[in-house]
Automatic annotation (TrEMBL):
GO terms for molecular function: DNA-binding transcription factor activity; sequence-specific DNA binding. SMART domains: HTH_ARAC. The lineage of its organism: Bacteria, Bacillati, Actinomycetota, Actinomycetes, Pseudonocardiales. PANTHER family: HTH-TYPE TRANSCRIPTIONAL REGULATOR NIMR (PTHR11019:SF199). Residues 154-251 form the HTH araC/xylS-type domain. Pfam families: HTH_18. SUPFAM superfamilies: Homeodomain-like, RmlC-like cupins. InterPro entries: Homeodomain-like_sf, HTH_AraC, RmlC-like_jellyroll, RmlC_Cupin_sf. It comes from Saccharopolyspora elongata. This is HTH-type transcriptional regulator RipA. Keywords: DNA-binding, Repressor, Transcription, Transcription regulation.
């Protein structure tokens, strides 16, 4: 678990529905009695549980259901807007954390709810209903990186977390942790539902989201994270995020302006 550099005022800001986090700031492990939506209108916000990590770049929304222990960490300067979801509405949403794409209507509803504008209770309730309807009709983003419980597989993923750019094969990693390639390959599929290459690619894309938000060029991001060439990085990023890294970075710059 990374060190969480939490400012004393951060929790208060979050409760007030809007806050600004600098790189490395976060919220220590906690849980809520209600569901919670966190919308980073700028920057990147990671939500981590014992099951894995969900990364929400700008213009995505992170969902955390009631009673689910988690912690957050910001990458880059991250403006976070928070909307609580009452239990009756939570039944329509997933029972585990998730990241969703943000439609124009969903974005506007989230901004109004967290703007500080005075709203009649019934108007606020209707807006919350719009938010939930948009999420139910929307689609999940493939930005969840599952984590294993098996000690052998955990040793491998720890090595990859420490150096996402490492080009070691699964057989080479297996020799480092005392497990066969065949055993590890089976564990990736049975525990995580992904192949070794899929898991490592997703890990690298999560790190790429952070680097691109920090302004690192697409070509440099690809090289630093171990892709053989920019084309393979662009293909992997687009398959997971739904847009090219260049387009993603351009949208970040446009929002900053």
């Amino acid at each position: 678990m990374p060190v969480i550099h939490q400012k004393p005022s951060l929790v208060t800001q979050i409760v007030e529905k809007r806050g600004l986090l600098v790189h490395g700031d976060g919220v220590a492990p906690h849980r809520h009695t209600e569901g919670q939506l966190l919308y980073p209108s700028a920057g990147v916000l990671a939500t981590t549980t014992k099951r894995g990590t969900w990364v929400a770049p700008a213009n995505r929304v992170a969902w955390t259901p009631p009673g689910f222990e988690h912690y957050h960490r910001a990458y880059g300067q991250t403006e976070v807007r928070v909307v609580e979801v009452a239990g009756a509405l939570c039944a329509s949403l997933p029972d585990q954390p998730m990241v969703f794409a943000v439609s124009p209507l969903l974005r506007e509803a989230l901004l109004v709810l967290t703007s500080g504008r005075e709203l009649r209770p019934e108007a606020r309730d209707r807006l919350r209903g719009v938010v939930v309807d948009e999420l139910v009709d929307g689609h999940e983003e493939a930005l969840y990186l599952p984590e294993p419980t098996d000690d052998r597989l955990r040793a491998v993923t720890d090595l990859l977390h420490a150096d996402p750019a490492a080009s070691l094969t699964l057989a080479e990693l297996g020799r480092s942790v005392g497990a066969s390639e065949r055993t590890l390959s089976r564990l990736f599929q049975t525990e995580l539902g992904l192949s070794f290459h899929q898991w490592r690619s997703l890990l690298r894309v999560q790190h790429a989201l952070i680097r691109l938000a920090e302004g690192v060029a697409v070509i440099d991001t690809a090289a630093r994270l171990g892709w053989a060439n920019p084309t393979s990085f662009i293909e992997a990023f687009t398959a997971i995020v739904g847009q090219t890294p260049g387009r993603y970075q351009m949208e970040l710059r446009h929002r900053d302006r």
